[in-house]
């Protein structure tokens, strides 16, 4: 047999078995008992494998207790405060958003837009963008010394 005829035979078998049902259907498997959860209770996730044995004798809280169940939820710490921006950065952000915002509002409210007003709004947008890009500081920190290793 040639390799081409072997491949043709494999394709014929695939086409012939196209409408056959699979022998191991996932729908035929029974539902595991550990997946059954009583109404009103959230399922507990399975812990990762560890050397410690699991304690499966814990008591389920009754519904009539007035306890707060938030003790088992993660509460993140408050975020650190935002850094204070200097005057140049605040002016650059204001120009970046203020120019297009003024043009949008003036167009929506049908305010007169003289050419110098349009030029000022576009120039403020471009100037704010350039100022923010120049002040980004992509380089290494100033206190890193002469040999700061690999800089990505």
Automatic annotation (TrEMBL):
Lineage top rank: taxon: Bacteria
Transmembrane feature ranges: 91-109, 116-134
Compositional bias per record (Acidic residues), positions renumbered to this chain: 45-54
Keyword Transmembrane helix annotated: yes
KW Transmembrane (keyword) present: yes
Comp. bias regions, Basic and acidic residues: 26-37
Region (Disordered): 1-85
Name assigned to this protein: DUF308 domain-containing protein
Organism: Herbidospora galbida
